[in-house]
Amino acid sequence: MKWVIRGLSGSHEVEVERSGEGFEVTVDGRRHVIDLICLDGAVASLRFVEDGRSFQVAYQQGDDHRWRVGVREREFDFSVLTPVEAIDEVSESTGRGSRLIEAPIPGKVVSVAVGPGDEVTPGQSLVVLEAMKMENELISDRGGRVAAVHVTAGDAVESGALLVELE
């Protein structure tokens, strides 16, 4: 299963697969084999097989894809989204005043459908971004004019990279 994890440290691509009695977890391309044992309610034991590190983890699921995880004396808040939900979340946020279209997750630009000076309408395709082996179409949520395009087909982009500016 593929996910996008968003927290204070940015967005990360995560893929989780069952492997024997544990899990194979790939985070931003780095693979880890993990044993996970549920201990009591919302507490689990997490062990990294490759080096034997072990942690007791407390977790709590909140509203709207939010999670809080405690490891030792530290707590982490983050969102867990599917790639499509990550794209939708960015599209919704642009409707609240931002006219900057940013990459919701790291990926490769497959195509750019607009150029500087082009008039766009709500729902019009702007950029197609390939992320985690899926093509994701970023669309305009409003009409306007393209002020600048910051990417071309074939570019690799990080999460949050500026793709298109509308005016």
How would you describe the overall organization of this protein?
It is a single chain. With 167 residues, the chain is mainly β. Helices cover 7% and strands 59% of the residues. It contains 1 helix and 16 strands. The strands form 3 sheets. An 8-stranded antiparallel β-barrel has the order 1-2-3-4-5-6-7-8. A 4-stranded antiparallel beta sheet has the order 9-16-14-11. A 4-stranded antiparallel beta sheet has the order 13-12-10-15, with helices on one face. The longest helix has 12 residues, at 83-94. The two termini are 38 Å apart. Mean pLDDT is 85; it is low at 93-98.
In the predicted model, the low-confidence regions spanning at least 5 consecutive residues are 93-98
**Strand fraction:** over 45%
Q: Strands across the major sheet, in which order?
A: 1-2-3-4-5-6-7-8
Instruction: Give the ordered list of helices and strands.
Output: EEEEEEEEHEEEEEEEE
- Portion of residues in helices? under 10%
Radius of gyration, Cα only, in angstroms? 19 Å
**Separation of the first and last Cα atoms:** 38 Å
State the helix count: 1
Shape: elongated
Q: Averaged pLDDT, please?
A: 85
Counting helices, strands and paired strands, the structural category is mainly beta
Tally the beta strands. 16
Largest sheet: 8 strands, antiparallel, barrel
